[in-house]
Each structure stands twice: as C-alpha cells, then as structure tokens.
Specification:
four-stranded antiparallel β-sheet, 3 helices, Alpha-Beta Plaits, about 140 residues, alpha+beta, transposase activity
C-alpha cells in the first residue's frame, strides 16, 4: 500500500485524489513529435503547480496525451482541465509555428472534449505503468 504514503493534508482534511485525463488534438491530427510532448509536459507541470496539484505521470502520442494528476478537493477538475488545455494550446502554438498549419481555421490545438476518470479501485502504480507505456510499440 505504497499509495497511502502519499496522502496529502489540507487545513481541514486528508486526501488522496487522482484523475486520469486524456486530451485529444483537434481533428485528431497527428502533430506531436517528442519535442512537442516534452514542452507540453513542462507547461502542464507549471499549470498543475499553480493549482496546487501534482502531475504524477505524463505521456502521449502524436495525437493525444495522458495525464495522471493528484489534486486537492478544493480544485474543480473542469477548471484544471480548462487551464491545462488553454495554456498549453496557446504556448505550444506560439513556440512551435509548425503546429499552426494544422489549425489555421479553428486556432485551437485541442478538441473541445476530454476524458476524465477518477482513479479509485485501480492501484495508482498500475495506472502509472499504463500511461508510461502509451507511446511504446506493441
């Protein structure tokens, strides 16, 4: 039960909340190379820090990313997602002009929808491993 060693505390609570988030690129275009994913991870780690959340694991492929986020109860997942997608889209499009060619009409990097799953019964270590193996060939 190593997962329980990472229980966080707030002023009036103790918590261990994790969410598995998946963001897909607009039109499911294959646009990410390793350099894009590396920078995306940096940006998302900074956004998570601003929300007092922890980006436990990050990985992705050419058209989507997976995140495992440890968050306090005061954070609304929808607001965190909005900020993660908005900031990363803006920054990546500014820093990598090659991405703009895929989004000349919509001017957005991410699709409007996302996946958010609560992580409860599955051990965090299993989800950690799942996300880590996302971009490895079968």
């Amino acid at each position: 039960m190593a997962e329980y060693r990472s229980i966080r505390t707030g002023r009036h609570c103790a918590f261990l909340l994790h969410a598995h988030l998946v963001f897909v690129t607009k039109y499911r275009h294959n646009v990410f190379a390793d350099r894009h994913l590396d920078r995306c991870e940096e940006i998302m780690r900074n956004v998570c820090a601003d929300f007092e959340t922890e980006l436990v694991e990050f990985n992705g492929e050419t058209n989507h990313v997976h995140l495992l986020v440890n968050f306090p109860p005061k954070v609304a997942v929808s607001k965190l997602v909005n900020s993660l997608k908005g900031v990363s889209s803006r920054r990546l499009r500014q820093e990598f002009p090659d991405l703009v060619q895929h989004y000349y009409r919509a001017n957005k990097l991410w699709a409007g929808s996302y996946f958010a799953g609560s992580v409860g019964d599955a051990p965090i270590s299993m989800l950690h491993q799942y996300i880590k193996q996302q971009n490895q060939p079968l």
